[in-house]
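Please check this.
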Amino acid sequence: SAAKYRERERERDRERERERERERDRERERERHHHKRREAEAASRRSYSSSQSSRAPSIEDDEDGHLIYHHGDILQDRYKVMATLGEGTFGKVVKVKDLQTEHVIALKIIKNVEKYREAAKLEINALDKIAEKDPEGKNLCVKMLDWFDYHGHMCIAFEMLGLSVFDFLVSDPQKDNNYQPYTLEQVRHISYQLCYAVKFLHDNKMTHTDLKPENILFVDSDYEITYNSKKKRDVRRVKSSDVRLIDFGSATFDHEHHSTIVSTRHYRAPEVILELGWSHPCDVWSIGCIIFELYLGITLFQTHDNREHLAMMERILGTIPYRMARKSKTKYFYHGKLDWDEKSSAGRYVRENCKPLHRYQTVDDDDHRQLFDMISRMLEYDPAERITLAEALRHPFYEKIQTVQRLGSSSTERSHSLSR
């Protein structure tokens, strides 16, 4: 029967998604394992070579394609390695000292692997375009200082920034209740800057396509620890909410080929899931999801499955428009309605863990009403109806942005002291 067939299809979908998730877990596990082993190898090498004050590095890669480097190595006769800041599937980010300027900067060292090398070239192309349009970095996109090919490793030098807004949401990974939302004023300032930076990209015919809290970095992540009496624990509060947008590795120009699937799952717009084609509005959807997360400390769409994702959208935002369902060639609809069994365990999960958007509002006052009005306009199903970032910046929610924080022609001075 049709119902049984659909159930089988759904199960296959879920299994494929679970397999992809397992693959990602295995990848992360491998990264961790290799990282530990490399640390041990590096420690034994350090003890051997600590007598040498300035060494020419030997050019060697590990089995994953990462460049093997050590503290004190000098790359390109200019950048002295100080510490590893982080790593991802693409490669590593290293804290280095620029021996020409004496500045400490961040160097992204891409794996010596063809697909990551090609992706890095695309990122450099996007960053070049940004630098050409905005040499002073007034539009809050991270500044590329230099790039070079180091023995097959594309390297991109950036200004040094602080932690991401995501890092401050996760206050204590050891505890279950480990999230810590931002204050309304911080949400206002961070999201205003995000809209401003991404509007600049859109004005220059570019879509970021991978907006998420991990890709928004504080300029300076100095924080103070205060006691939160409601949560009965200490919380970290960042002193300045000035941010920069990073990671242009997936940025796509309007005239370029648009891959079918873009964005990290939780921030992916419905037109992307339904394979209806996408443009600038898919960034606006992501921003709506991010603002919700900054405000509540929880992910709006916590799922790894397309059908479940669409069911969550319907529970939170109402029915997906018939015209979008009809146009979509995907198998998630049956006679124009989402093919979703509310009585299944997945159906119960969605019902119990999601609720209409306005019910997430914690305080009923003008500020909070305006915030949720703006989020709901960013989460409009139809990309043609979705608010643009030019409109968002004029939304009443941003009328209260302090003069020192206002961006644009009238003001170049910006706040460095927003602590609430």
